[in-house]
Amino acid sequence: MIAKWSQFVVRHRWVVIVLWAVLVLATVPLATQVTKHLTTNGFDRKNSQVAWATNAVNEIHPLPSAKPLLIEGMGRKTAEVLGAHYGASAGDFHALTPSETVFLPPASMTASHGKRFEVQLRNRHATVTEVGQLAIGKKVTHDVSKTLTQSGLVALPVLALLLMVFGSVMSIALPFIIALAGSELALAAIAIISRHMTLSVFLTDIVSFLALGVGIDYALFISTRFRQNVDAGQSIEEAVADSMSHAGRSVLYSGIAVGLAVATLLLGNNAYWRGLAMGGAVALFAVLLATHSLLPAVMGVLGRHLNWGRVRRPDFGLWSWLARVVATRPVWSMLVGLVILVPLATLAPSIRMSTPANLATMLPPTNPLRRAVAVQQRVNGPGSIAPIAVMVRLKDSKDTPAAWSALGRLTNHLKTLPNVHSVSSATGLGLSPAQLALMASDPARAPKPVSEALTNYLAPRNSHLFAVYVTAKTGPNDARTSQLVGDIDHHLPHWLPSGSRAYAGGLVPVLRDFNDLTSQRLPWIVAAALVVALVVLTAATGSLLQAVLGVLFDGLVAMATAGFLVLVSHQQWFGFQNQPLDSSITPLIFVLLFGLSMDYEVILLHRIQERVRAGVAMQEGVRQGVATTGAMITGAGMIMVVVFLALLISPLQIMKTLGIGLSFAVLADTWVVRSLLVPSATALFGKYGFWPWRPRQSSADML
């Protein structure tokens, strides 16, 4: 079927190319607007208690206040002189360096005075940055986007590697044609889907990464087979049909496996994971569409011109030697592979995952904004940068003394919890429940300071909703702060009248829920990805044995990768900080590993099966399979490693971890599993290496 389709595409190659050009041009407006309906949040679960509380926080509209500032390019003394005109004292300024100062405004400074002070600072050519979690979040997002752009430029040397692997200048264009067409079509599809489903903006990153990664792999596997066929004397149409029947079929199976593996992130059950799952799956199927329609059409047009600028690759005899070793000494080859991976895999259980609630800790230790937050914590208390908002909905409204009495009792209970530094509530204004009810029902009758203070705790459009703010003694990243959130949520039902609804909301509770959910769902995500690998490998090879071996070896690489990340992130190898792995990327590393490994697995096994079907013994089939695919598989892997390692230019450890984790996973998979473990295991099982599949010599070659 694939052969007939390929012949049809080649015969109508110009029509196919024109249709693709029209499709790409028509969907460009959609692709460029992809972020319009995407969310930068999405870490909370829709309809969860913490989501309700966090949304309720947004119903409170506190009065604007002066913001903490990082002042760069101006000395502390100069800033003090300017600040004195707006009610600031010398104690409100804290020098980081002679030209960097942190300003923590006094409670008496109004928002208007704070703004005018900022204007004066900028008029004196100082750089002013707000010190807050929102500003830091924007900085982190900006650095992530900047890294992805710069890493593409840094990875330009990959062209030299592409030239060596693809073997000619002209053939280098193929992966970029497929990747660009696939990613553009995927982004356009996501733009349509996002209008009907809440998705995370971070999906654009995975679309770019996957489209580039699998686009390179698929174009390499298929075009290599095509050029071999042309060199063997086949016509262009025959060469395309044969390459698509063999390598194209392998790519189809591996693409389905990658798409389904990435789709397992849907088990994460929030907009963030849903966005990555949808983005990755759509990108994969868009690339598959391009690979099985646009690629054969382009190969049909270029034909023998694909060899233009051909480079003679040095042949050191490595793969001939290694193929002979794994086929004739499978036990020793297996032991070498296990010795490399098993020690690292034993470290996997000690892995720690957590997305930090103090976003400043995602920045480098030397970053002025991170150091400014540290000053803020030292002066105002570690928990001051992210208070816990306890949102309460009572049956009684704000104009009844009963509501304020209940809120007063809750405030007193919260103060008794361990690790509580302070509790801020409207009941702390020194007024009785009756007075608070009167002033809340008619703010015009309340003194201005009281009416202004009440806006920090009451929702203007919901008379039953109240806010109480709890500040922990410890910082947002501290496990004790997370425990405090759990204690609050546990006690709230017992401290409030029946019929009430209350829960902790805000940044710390949201990320606590996200971290807990990710830790709970990660085993299920990994298990689902392994089931996908088992089913697809069985369907692709007809061998349950190879499917089981593939799952076991993939699991071993995943464990070894986790162990390697423990050394990097927890033991501070390569200069990394001692931090938990970020929950927002760790599952992604493992899912991408399972997906990408399918490319190499299916290509290798199909080549071995092809030789066995041709009549050679299993051991000889293994030798020929490794000898003919080893350079191609490891070359494709090295291209991916170059792309991933380019992320090390990022100032953010989260991006560096993603890059080095994926690089190790690909290296381990291509050089250890596909080069040693899979072929040696196949050779060890001999004629049962593809059980229950057995070659039928008289049948037509269906690979």
TrEMBL record:
This is MMPL family transporter. It comes from Sulfobacillus harzensis. The keyword Metal-binding does not apply. Signal peptide: none annotated. It is a multi-pass membrane protein. Its main location: membrane. The chain crosses the membrane at residues 148-166, 173-193, 199-221, 251-272, 278-303, 331-351, 522-540, 547-568, 588-605, 626-651, 671-690. GO terms for cellular component: plasma membrane. Pfam families: MMPL. Residues 156-301 form the SSD domain. It is found in: Cell membrane.
